Amino acid sequence: MKTYSIDRLIKHQIPLLLVIAFIIRLYAAFHTPVIAKDSIIYMQNAIHISSGEFVKGLEGYPPVYPILIAIFYRLIGNVEYAGQAVSVLMGTLALLPFYGLTKEIFGRQIALWGAIFFAFQPFLVQHGGEVTSESTYIFFFVSALYMAWKALKHEDLIYFLSFGFLAVLAYLTRPEGIGLFVSFIVWLPIHMRLHKEKPSLLFLGKTLCVFLPFFFLGTIYLYQVHQITGEWRINAKRDMIADSGLKGAINSDASHSEVKTYQDQRIPVWSFRGWVETKNLSGFVFRYFKTFFLLILKFTGILHQLLFSFVIYLLIKKKFFSYHLEGEIFLAIFFILYLMAMAFLYVDGRHLLQLVPIFLPWAAAGFLELCKRFESLLKLRNINLRLSAQTFLIVLTIGILLPKTLSGHRVDKLSLKDAGFWIHSQKMTSPSILSTDSRVAYYAQGRHIQLADPGEIVSFILESKPDFVVIVKDEIANIPADALKALQPLSLKEVYQTRGDAGPSVVTVYVLRST
User: Fold this and answer.
1) Is the pLDDT of residue 192 over 90?
2) Helix axes of 37-50 and 64-76: crossing angle, nearest 10 degrees
3) How buried is residue 267: exposed, middle or buried, by Cβ count under 10 Å (0-12/13-18/19+)?
4) What is the DSSP letter of 200?
5) Is 132 exposed, middle or buried (0-12, 13-18, 19+ CB in 10 A)?
6) How many CB atoms neighbour CB 411 within 10 A?
7) Interaxial angle between packed helices 281-303 and 305-316, expressed in degrees from 0 to 180 and rounded to the nearest 10
8) How many C-beta atoms lie closer than 10 Å to residue 514's C-beta?
9) How far apart are CA 163 and CA 31, in angstroms?
């Protein structure tokens, strides 16, 4: 009987995993029928950059992802497809540094199982097929972590410079990438303590080289942010609502109009400023740790409950920090510092997604321990039988992950797209649309007027006199009864209603009778 070794298996499986990861993310791209709100700004900035208006392309969000979209836009000719293409490619390639980092710390076998989990992880796949910066950011984020580990392990200048370069690219993709530099500084004394040696001047010099790429690239961006905002801040990101002509500009070579910006009214889970003003230290600490643990609970859902259960099994077997003590502490430091920072801010699942690649190696290690337990119960001694048992368990795991991995992303927002297409079918030139969601205007090729508060709909209608008013069913409950009465003299007329295929989301389109 022919015997297969783990090393030989891995040699053939990693290229195959790349192909599978690419196909799955491509599938996700085709099954993401509605763009994210942020996508509009990324595409608008990419158009500016492609047209040579680089300064305008810096407004709003960091530049790396829009620059990549602009490159693909010139090749593909459709900016939405270009954004998806970048996400698919970068999301697939992120598997390589993840595998390399996991192999360095946990070994080849855990790295293989971790790479399989990475290829099929539901949220990594979903964001790997849409026009958002998550996949691009995760590629630079994990690559920077990999180079940081190799820099401190081998003390080679090229690794220090590579970490600095990849970290600044992560920062120029998403602002939270700057945390890589902060976490690296925190890790340095721990690394020295673990090695029980005083750092040489040469080592300190190499460490300082980490900041050279930031000095050349990051400071230029910071200066440009200052020019745009008038403030010294780490990015110019604002929650922007696209205005007129975006879709038309994307589908033609015509000049595109400006983008109006509105400030989002989101409230953080708790306020640091509130503590400063009230000096309520006990309330501050209580809210902080409450938020911290709520984030952990939220993270288990982002990771996937099955994968998290493998980590729990690893804890039960007392195998945590038993593979490579320094390497596991290295990952834990980055994970904890990012989670602590997030507890100060308003975050959603997309922010927690960057922590998934840090945590997946432990899920893979727990899976391996579970495989060993399974082999022990069945008394499997032959290497081929053991590999067959592990293959069975990994296929079973993938089978549990797949329904969520392959589920359509943002299908519940199809009604917004339908409403936009219906408005576009009315053959009006750049119609003005009052709505809480800018995607309606994007698909209508119209001008968006942000309805910041449905309760103030009357004043918004009187002030802006839109061609169309688009209201989601859930928003009607937020409109006061007296406001609904005040609407009657305005003679709003329902002209179209659409219901999403994947839920009760009902979007109604109104016009003023006078129009």
Assistant:
1) no
2) 70
3) exposed
4) P
5) buried
6) 16
7) 110
8) 8
9) 35
Quick check: 263 and 239 in contact, CB under 8 A? yes
Tell me the C-alpha to C-alpha distance, in Å, between residue 483 and each of 467, 477, 480, 515: 20, 11, 5, 21
466 and 449 Cβ atoms separated by less than 8 Å = yes
Sign (positive or negative) of CA dihedral 390, 394, 395, 399 = positive
Of 321, 330, 289, 326, the residue nearest 186 (C-alpha)? 330
C-alpha to C-alpha distance for 341 and 107, rounded to whole angstroms: 30
List beta partners, residue 498: 507
Q: In this predicted model, what pLDDT tens digit does every residue of 447-483 receive, in sequence order?
A: 998 887 777 777 788 788 888 888 877 666 666 666 6
Who has greater pLDDT, 281 or 322? 322
Place of tokens 């709909």: 457
Distances (CA, A) of 417 to 29, 423, 451, 505: 16, 10, 18, 12
Q: Is 204 exposed, middle or buried (0-12, 13-18, 19+ CB in 10 A)?
A: exposed
Over the stretch 477-501, which tens digit does the pLDDT of each residue have? Answer: 666 666 666 665 555 677 767 765 5
Q: What are phi and psi of 359, to 5 degrees?
A: -90, -25
In one-letter notation, the amino acid at residue 438 is S
Question: Are 148 and 184 within 8 A, CB to CB?
Answer: yes
Nearest to 507 by CA among 402, 374, 417: 417
- The phi and psi torsions of 32 (rounded to 5 degrees) equal -115, 85
Tell me which of 75 and 55 has the higher pLDDT: 75
Q: Residue 77, class by beta-carbon neighbours within 10 Å (0-12 exposed, 13-18 middle, 19+ buried)?
A: exposed
3-state helix, strand, coil in the chain (%, to 5): 70, 5, 25
Report the 10 Å Cβ neighbour count for 123. Answer: 20
Query: Residue 293: what are its φ and ψ, rounded to 5°?
Result: -75, -30
Those residues with Cβ within 8 angstroms of residue 185's Cβ, 6 or more apart along the chain or in another chain: none
Residue 227 burial by CB count (10 A; 0-12/13-18/19+): exposed, middle or buried? exposed
Cβ-based neighbour number of residue 139 at 10 Å: 26
The pLDDT of residue 28 is: 93
- Segments in 244-355 forming alpha helices (H): 246-251, 272-278, 281-303, 305-316, 325-342, 349-352
Least confident piece of the model among 50-59, 254-263, 495-504: 254-263
Residue 255 phi/psi, 5-degree rounding, is -65, 145
Report the relative pairing of strands 447-450 and 492-499 from DSSP bridges.
unpaired
